[in-house]
Design goal:
The complex is a heterotrimer. By secondary structure, chain A is of the alpha+beta class. Chain A contains 5 helices and 5 strands; from the N terminus they run ββαβββαααα. Chain A folds into 2 domains: 76 residues, Beta-grasp domain (Ubiquitin-like (UB roll)); 65 residues, Orthogonal Bundle (DNA polymerase, domain 1), CATH 1.10.150. Chain A has a 5-stranded mixed β-sheet, sandwiched between helices. Chain B is built from 20 helices and 33 strands. Helix content of chain B is 26%, strand content 26%. In chain C, helix 10 runs antiparallel to helix 11. Chain C is globular, with a radius of gyration of 19 Å. Classes of the chains: A alpha+beta, B alpha+beta, C alpha+beta. Chains in contact: A-B, A-C, B-C.
Amino acid sequence: MLKIVHMWVNGNEVELAVDPRESLLETLRERLNLTSVKKGCGVGECGACTVLIDGVAVDVCLYLTMWAEGKHILTTEGLKRPNGELNPIQQAFIDEAAVQCGFCTPGLIMTAVELAGTGKRYTREELRKLIAGHLCRCTGYENILNAMERVCGQEA
Amino acid sequence: METVGKSFTRVDARGKVTGEAKYTNDLMPKDALWAKVVRSTIANGVVKSIDISEALQVPGVVRIVTCFDVPDIQFPTAGHPWSVEAAHQDVPDRKLLNTRVRQWGDEIAAIVAKDNVAAERAARLIRVEYEEYEPIVTIEEALAEGATPLHPDIRKDNIFVHTSFKTSPDFDYDKAKERAIEEYGEENLIEVSDTYRTPRIAHCHIEVCTSWAYVDTNGKVTVVASTQIPHIMRRVIAQALGWPVGKVRVIKPYIGGGFGNKQDVLDEPLNAYLSIVCGGRCVCLELSREECVSQTRTRHACKGVLRGLATKDGKLLAREGDIYTNKGAYASHGHAITAGMTTNFKDIMHDAYGCRSDGYSVYTSSAVAGAMRAYGVPQAAFLADCLTDDLCAKGGFDPLQFRMDNCVPPGFVASNGITYYSYSLKECMKRGAEFIHWEEKRREYAHQEGPVRRGVGMSIFMYKVGVYPISLETSSARMILNQDGSIQVELSATEIGQGADTVFSQMASETTGITMDKVYIISTQDTDVAPFDTGAYASRQSFVTGKAVKKCALELRARILDYASYMLGRPAEELMIWQNQICEKIHTGTAAASDRACTVTASSPTGAGTVTDAAPTGTGAADGFDTGNAAVRNAKKLALGGEYIDNTRNDGSKGESAKYSAWLDGKVKEYDIHDLPNGEAAILRDTGVEKDVKPGKALLSMEDLAMNAFYSLDRSEHITAEVTNHCKENTFASGCCFVDLEVDMPLGKVKINNIINVHDSGTLLNPKLAEAQVHGGMAMGIGYALTEELLYNEKGRPLNANLLDFKIPTAMDVPELHVEFLEMDDPMGPYGNKALGEPPAIPVAPAIRNAILNATGVSMKEIPMTQQKLVAAFKEAGLI
Amino acid sequence: MFDIEHYFEAKSVEDAVRLLTEHEDAEIISGGTDVLVKLRDGKGAGGSLVSIHEIKELHGVKILSDGTLEIGPATCFTDLTNDPLIIRYVPYLGEAVDTVGGPQIRNQGTIGGNVCNGATSADSAATLQTLNAVVVLQGAEGVRRVPVTEFYTGPGRTVRRHDEVCRAIEIRPEDYAGFTGCYMKYGKRAAMEIATLGCCVRVRLTPDGETIEEARIGYGVAAPTPIRCRETEQALAGKRVADDQIYELIGSGVLNEVNPRSSWRASKDFRLQLISELARRALKEAIRRWQNHEAPDAALPGRKGGDQGC
């Protein structure tokens, strides 16, 4: 039986009928077509489905949609300005060649948005720990860290 | 070059950072049915019966098919081009679903349901009766007397193929040893005899293996798949279904990594079949992460039984190896990977007396081994470099010097004719040693005590580009001029994250003269539309497809100039394209054409070509040609008719190949000349670059030209070009890794303090992307060295098939990664480039292993060197 | 989708107890990082869930009037690590749960779940053992307090009854005041890891900082359940910290009190090596921290951690 959930997704108020068995990953992808939210494992091991819930990075493959009632959800689709201009984090990922196959990219960008949102500046070692919930097989993390440093590193 | 060689931003970067780039499942229709494969719960046996009656009662179940229902057609899955010679075709050893179970998790039935919950509930209700045999997971078990043959219809035992390679037909290690004893005396010889092992690992691309299929209104079964090889997949699906190829269509959107796993046809034929048996409805077959790790393809585990012999003063005399690989339940890529592994083991070092390497591909009842980044060469490098460093340790040689003295030499020609043209391996080694402070650290670490010790280690590798001449290399490209003077580039070479779309765009821009912002590459491959190419593997695309792109761009350029000639009323020869403008071509050469005619009479790329001077006898020697070999003499003759460009290497020495420009066919063009080992020279490549010209006055914009070409009432012409390039050239890439690390012995922990890969990959097409590619390979190599291994229990069931237990490195496990290149223009590459995609993963694991040897004196015989294995080894050595 | 028959959202602990009582097949779900993983794997498929995810009263850390730290079980690992009271009084507990999985999982997984799933590999387990933490369970028959040292009955099994909800984890002042500690997690990689072994060593030294007054040693994965090594703790009491023998003593003493098993993840021999070596290192670090004046006094009620001297 479907249940109604109200939430704010990328700034828009959304009222949706969902199956209570759904993960937020499935709701965002299949009901709202927010396909930047990627599924890489389904069990919180890869971080590809990371979105911000009330500003906090969460693996939504392990988050029931029912819990999203009243919450503010931000996905990568919500970062671009209305005129198409990119968020500085997105631009940093481009400039630092931090993107390869691109499948882990939206999730990592959401973690970067969370970190940038704290206003803190992080050392490279701190950043390594803070992105360790994202697996990437293409980049060796080197350029991802370079991109992250540009937006919230101590050297930036 | 104007565009090639510059660090352009990836053409797909924006789409990927905005999340707008669409991957397979992002495009799936909302009403797609969900398929689940039912897998065997034994590792070896036969399905006697399957009872699906209860499962069919589950609400939402649409269809269940079993191994007793599928077409009686065996098919191969390898991402190889078809061979027209029956003997070289891949081995068809599986059906869509199989009654003969050959691995735990073998595919025995499939459920199609309205959602995953219904499919999973049904799967739990399927009852299977088996006849069960002993699992044979390891090479030893599969080769043991009385082991069940897994494919008795194909092979009488579990040896899939055995090959033997020797440096010369009469080489024999024991005879070589006798000769060495005679020549040097036994007391002056060092011998190592040992067995080394590498693990089975999983690719772990972050996007799982997935596809969805439907039957289109025209009756074609259409499969949208995450694949590296859309055109090969189309053929294999057709073969598996018994359908004509034209009735199958494959579409490849963006893919979230492949690393070779998606260079095989996986469950896509089954997906097509499931759609067909569901009346053409759209069916999605997405594998779970667990299935991806243990039920798709893996890197071959291998065991090398090796011997090596050197003189006490560090001359490598002879080696031999019997290399066994675990190919798992099905043939997949057949023996190709094992053969490549054994060849590479033999060729990476130069043995004064010779080398033998035998390869055995062994069927076992475990995960199928197929292609994975660098196709057997990481194993070869590990075996070769363990042996090398163990010889060095025993003989007291410096491993760097030993490799300098005994590694594959410049101008090396492999037994199949592949020649190592641009060679900077030794320079790479020099640079790596300098970076890591090799000599200083070797001295510093020579005498250490205490629980934490440091060491430096190195490894080298060599990698051929693409699959020629073992297999076919062919590629097509299409370019279409748009009304605004921009172009589409269409290929079936695939972007899989490596940056292919970007470098192809650069190539198209470079050769056409149309700027990068006006080159639109079509990233999605649709086999109904995209011209043929075999796909992403063997680090081949920038080389093989690159040649097709260049050829196509030259043709398009010629057509554009032809139309410009018509519009401007001037001969095409007087025109050129420069930054989207048709310009006057201005010759900057200092002498007249008539002074400089000469002829190239032979230009066989793999054989010896010759250059004869048809010009009036030149007077005076050009500078820089003071060596005496024939190639240089010939080159000198040619150079009299042209401009000597450069044959200087990065270290200032003179290289074996060089570029010259010359008057040929009445035009000044740039050519590559290469010394062949027999002392002759070959003209290898028309570089496509016109020398001694520069753009003059702009006469016509590309946009005006295109609008006219489209809509002229006088001469309407839709300017396109489409070419096939059958590539019959090859060369080698190479490089090395140097590591400085510390080992916390009581905890078995390895900390990498400094690491560098130095690559000999020819001219870089896009340095920033090239560097990023190396980073990823290095991280993969670190995982290979220390943590990654797919494990099985005694029943043949995988134990760690998920991303928590299969340990690929996280950001906290990877140190800062350093990368350098020693760029040397390779005469074979379309733009001087050669392989780079796979090589970075090759040398890291053996370098780490050798650094641990340097740090602790303990010679590890296998990877991954897990903490537990290290602790056990240190205890055995009395170090803790 | 997860194979769930019924999903219930509890409004309060009492509500959760009622739902669990009414539905035999229902399981509690809090952060979801264990329960949903098991469900996906088919374990408990077709059962029901009682969610306590949205019960506000189960979140956060408080000081009770007697100085006891009360940890809300639905507090996620990240919030625990960053909580000022935790940082002030039991920073090593915050450090321990900061080694769970990766950052996102630490934003989702809860301390209550970490305890109640009964895993010996739980990263909070070794430390909570040394803290003599008390698990407060509320069920149909009322509230009971179970010391964490008596909470585990076997691998993945605890004394918690089906209808009971963990409503708090308590740490009494005598168990944290005057102590420093160090948790060492050993894994095969540096993040996204199940502990191969977890070791927490805590010490209270004499005021001059020269002698061990009390030591506590807790382990995860050194036995089928989290354990303490009480004999070795006693042997260390009264020993001078300058005497290197204490490291030999702890390193060999613990070996008599543990019972690790061999599995494909690690052999018994290897685990024994780690048990010994990690204890030495954790002891050293705990002593260093004590000598660095990091041991807290007992908390005063009503104070937040940040505004109080140490």
